[in-house]
Design brief:
A hairpin with an 8-residue loop joins strand 1 and strand 2. The protein has a two-stranded antiparallel sheet. By secondary structure, it is mostly helical. It contains twelve helices and two strands; from the N terminus they run H-H-H-H-H-H-H-H-H-H-H-H-E-E.
Amino acid sequence: MTLRFLPFAIFLGLVLAASSRAEDRGQPEPQAPKPGSAPALWIEAQQIVDGDSAVDRYRRIAQRFPRHPLGQESLSEMADYEYARGEYDAARTLYARVRGAESKRARLGEALSTFALGDPQRALAQARLLVHGRDDPYTWLGSLLIAECWQAEGRLPETLAAYRHLLDLPAGPAQPAALLGAARSAERSGEHEEADGYLKKLRQRFPDSPEAAEARSFSRAPRSESDAGGEAPALPPQKK
């Protein structure tokens, strides 16, 4: 699992949260929006398949209607597009501009971009600001990023503690990635039974996930003589 696999899994959770919120807005008004208005331009942008052309529409909305909710959502759409393309600096700049109802989502995107740019310490500080109520989906996603930041810093005790805290929360997006990360951290910490427990949950709950396939491919390697049970799954090294 690459260093950027987990952050991208978090990014997918961010996109799914946005899609769910869009559905919650309900059906549009029966009247057609006024040509040139923010809703009219938004509908045009949503119907465009080509990414660059859609971003041009979103940019027009953000420039012409900076205080309109759709202007802020347009900034988020532009930032998501840049993140998906690997343009993390541009994505972070756009996420930082978002305010209003989109702000919490944007702060997560900003932290993800910071991590992808190679600054886990700053990303950790940003992610901590997202951890509030247990049932908040951004608490889950922020906590997952916190664990990955500690991992990138090479702080194994903090990494395992972060995963334990994460998996004590109500289940959120990217659960397979979280279980695999927790298993890897537990195994490296010598907590072999704990690692086996995470892998068992992963295989049972998400048998068709790529993470479960990776877990099934773990080779069996002997443990030290002091370890009970004789053998444990030897987790592959994290790819750089």
